[in-house]
Every structure is written in structure tokens, then in C-alpha cells.
Predict the structure of SPAG4 protein.
Amino acid sequence: VLPGDCWAFKGHQGQVVIRLPTRVHLTAITVQHIAKEASPSGTVISAPKDIAVFVSLLGSSVDADREEETLLGMFTYDTEQDPIQTFPLKDMLLPRAFSHVKLLVKSNWGNPWYTCIYQVQVHGKMETQKASTKGQD
């Protein structure tokens, strides 16, 4: 992770919808920014602060005409902690797998011009196939 080599968006708010390669029962999300020591300015005011995570039925055959979202968690990325932070999600409220995750950044740590996210990781268990896969890798 190098300073400036990030997904940046204008202002202090933004969002990204991540399409997962398969449907997943979500358990946590990890967000990464650079450490203060790696920053040329010595600050990380472009780091996200308040973040909300939603799952989306976008593109599902259940309801293709509208997009439904369910909040799985709200958390604060703490610039005084490790630059890689993992947050548990409330998957137990939704006993199903999803193929889209929305990360909504509501604020950053003070940069009025842009916000940077260096890496997002989605954690969970892939939805099991209904057909038997016994004997297959």
C-alpha cells in the first residue's frame, strides 16, 4: 500500500457497491488506509471516518425492478488504531447470502477535498450449492 495509490472520491462522502463473485453469508468487513507514518503530510485526514455497510438485492431475480438495501452495520474507522481494521457485521439478522455489498462513507477525518480508501475486504462463507459436490474440489 503506497500513499496516493487508493480509491479516492471527491469530498467527504461517497459510496461503492461491490459485486461479489458468488453469493456470500457476510460476517465482517475490513477497511484499510495508510498509517500516519507512511503519509507524506504526516496526517491521514483523507481516511474514512463514519461508515455504513449495506447488503443489496441488486440484480437478484427475486425483485429485479427495485433495489432493496439492508443495513448490516455502522462503524467508525479509527485513525489512532491499526490501519487495517475489521468490523463484524450483523449477518445473523439475514439468514441468506448476498452478491452485492454497499460501503457508504458518511464522513472522513477532515479533508474537505477528497476521501481515500486503500483496500476493502469482505469476509463470510460462500453459499453452499444445493446440488451435491461430494468428491469434487
In short: The chain is about 0% helix and 45% strand. The longest strand covers residues 14-32.
